[in-house]
Design brief:
Blueprint lengths: L1 H13 L3 H14 L4 H14 L2 H8 L7 H14 L3 H7 L14 H13 L14 H21 L9
Length: about 160
């Protein structure tokens, strides 16, 4: 799945279209949130863009190491004020931890244990997009919006009177 996206994103990077690579990889991450290649290249893209804290957000989920990862991690901690809750809120982890690459498992387990010791759960699982709890707020908003738009049309009477 990720091979064509990775190839196109790499071509964008090679051509200097960093923003295009970022957008392409961010879009792919929505459907493959645990794909190590996408996470890794998205981290590299943010690194090249000079957004080191954003690079760390993705590299932490891959276990990326080395001098760049260390610099990115320090920038990430500086941005989040070294607060565990703020750091975890910044990470795009929304799946069970074992869905992420093996190289990241140790760090992610430490994060989860630290969160649990403070009395909360991490990562927060994304709701199933098809559950009624996830859809209900949008349905109610759509009804309100429909009434507002309908009320703007000349000669239209609202069902409310």
């Amino acid at each position: 799945m990720s091979a064509p996206v990775i190839a196109r994103a790499q071509a964008d990077l090679d051509a200097g279209r960093l923003w295009k690579a970022r957008d392409r990889l961010s879009g792919a991450l929505r459907t493959s949130p645990h794909d190590a290649e996408i996470l890794e290249l998205l981290g590299e893209t943010y690194w090249r863009m000079g957004d080191h804290p954003a690079a760390a957000r993705y590299w932490i989920l891959t276990g990326h190491s080395g001098p760049e990862a260390k610099t990115a991690r320090l920038a990430f901690e500086e941005r989040t004020g070294r607060s565990l809750r703020a750091q975890l809120a910044e990470l795009p982890a929304r799946l069970p931890l074992d869905a992420y690459p093996d190289a990241a498992q140790g760090q992610l387990a430490l994060f989860a244990a630290a969160a649990e010791s403070e009395g909360w759960t991490w990562p927060r699982q994304a709701p199933d997009p098809m559950t009624i709890d996830a859809v209900a707020p949008f349905a109610a908003g759509a009804r309100v919006l429909g009434r507002l738009i309908g009320g703007l049309r000349p000669g239209h009477r609202s069902p409310d009177g």
